[in-house]
Amino acid sequence: MHMEPTSFSAESYFETQPPPPTLEHDVEQVREFVQRQAKERRNVVLVTSGGTTVPLELNVVRFLDNFSAGTRGATSAEYFLKAGYAVIFMHRQFSLQPFSRHYSHSTNPFLDFLEIETLKGQSTPRISVTQDKREDLLEVLTVYKAVHAAGTLHTLTFVTVNDYLWLLRAVSQELSVLRRKAMYYLAAAVSDFFLPRQKMSVHKIQSGKGNLSIEMDQVPKILKSMVDEWTRDGYIVSFKLETDPDLLIPKARAALERYGHQVVIGNDLHRRKFEVVFVSRKPLPALPPGAEPVPDALESTFVESWLRIDSTVATGVPASQVKEIEEDIVAELVRKHAAWVHAGQQA
Amino acid sequence: MHMEPTSFSAESYFETQPPPPTLEHDVEQVREFVQRQAKERRNVVLVTSGGTTVPLELNVVRFLDNFSAGTRGATSAEYFLKAGYAVIFMHRQFSLQPFSRHYSHSTNPFLDFLEIETLKGQSTPRISVTQDKREDLLEVLTVYKAVHAAGTLHTLTFVTVNDYLWLLRAVSQELSVLRRKAMYYLAAAVSDFFLPRQKMSVHKIQSGKGNLSIEMDQVPKILKSMVDEWTRDGYIVSFKLETDPDLLIPKARAALERYGHQVVIGNDLHRRKFEVVFVSRKPLPALPPGAEPVPDALESTFVESWLRIDSTVATGVPASQVKEIEEDIVAELVRKHAAWVHAGQQA
């Protein structure tokens, strides 16, 4: 599979890679959802969540993937809903989802807290929830039912990085009608590399013919297109995940510099549950007309603020009462977004 | 990441690649489980299920994966339990599991069929199951509780292909004490390739430095070691998944020829839910002492038998009544295994 690498701009990407078959249907549903929220004057946030795959074969058996259970996205979506936002939850198939995330089949299987009760004089047994889980489940279920009744959560799924890119472009374009009232919370772990359709093997790559060698192309930097073309007024939050703490802030700054969006939330793979850093641009001081900014001012163009929660969890605390860092992340973004909306009304 | 490929035998693999940290603990639990089943005179089947990952970094962000939701393994495990087997269910973390598989958070989320009932004169509302789901859930829950009470299901998880290989070797060695009463149902989608630890990048591979190129080594053929060393008397069933139907039988025969185990179940990616083929060796005709087998007999050494179910599902049929091909696969294997156990007692 050794071939010459190609360089893709966002434009050439969409010209050469085919859209997912469900795109039109998905976009129509998003359009209806956005129209309804606009009428009801709600802010809308697009939350992307989970990893993307890069299939190596057209009849896909093998793929490259990015590590992400979808915890950040699913948890944040719940807090956005609680803050009164409507949420478009665009997630990797089978990654965690708001509400059901509390009941992972591996760590907290719901079948374990259901009981069969045989009642006197009744032929059919009743299914009930064990005492110790009742309160937590009731809390989750109550919010879940309320959100469904209000119609403020819309879920979309993707699998491949190609699905993701096409969906992101289309949803951004739909959301752009809300101007500054739209937020983009891009928590999905998106592959930096992909295999163009034109280079994919049709059938399962056969082993027994030696070792596997894959050469992938770079995914175009679509944040630039979002800011410049798809949704000029949207409030865009991207994430940087690194394993080397020394790279976190330099890479976050470089992303803001390159794409010109609003916030990068940096997180270290091993500390992400209780520590993140918000990196954004400092508003430049007002200069007298005609004055040039001094070099010093340019060097301190960025501002970082750390957000931390206690990393120790007391034993015996019910799950619903454990503090989650996403609560504070969302609260901070809601504040920043309100200021952004306000500034837009002033301008 | 271009380096010279190395060729690994099973032996050199385990000499150079580190065991997963939980291995010893996992093996101890398996040992206790096997001892208990031996006392209670149950047959034990090891069911492996789900895909394996190949991490590209030591601090893993990216990995190669194999497509597998774990449906075949999780479904078959249920039928083995119903047939009276004890099951060691060794599966990829977050892949489907027996019983809970019926309630995928994506396609059949359990929160949707719970209701909150506020009862007269009671301050705390009650959680109950909606009428239309009650019967199915009661059936699943009843078997689930019975299996837990009998202690016939033991679950192990793996993530990487390295976890899988170490666990498979250790569990096979533990199960080998049961001799012919142990079955191995190897439904996991195991990577043919891996990246030796010595070649892995410590931190997240940085993009922006051009394209990604990965060169992987072949995973050693551990089925050969299972048959020859780890569990000489076990009844071993392996799977072949192909996307090119013309390769299915030749590749299944080649596997039997090379490894010398009992059955290969071949399935085509797109038809696997309603069609599989059992490939095994034909018992050779008894020859007069001193006679050489004729070439013709050698050519027809293999026997194939197709197993098919109706691929159309009538609408309105409750989920618990939809026919699953795994029911017939397991029934056929239980028969074959009984004959194998019987033959062992004759010898």
Automatic annotation (TrEMBL), chains A, B:
Residues 155-272 form the DNA/pantothenate metabolism flavoprotein C-terminal domain. Residues 1-10 have a biased composition (Polar residues). Pfam families: DFP. Keywords: Ligase. It comes from Crucibulum laeve. One of its GO terms (molecular function) is ligase activity. SUPFAM superfamilies: CoaB-like (SSF102645). This is Phosphopantothenate-cysteine ligase. One of its GO terms (biological process) is coenzyme A biosynthetic process. Belongs to the PPC synthetase family. It comes from the Eukaryota. Residues 1-22 are annotated as: Disordered.
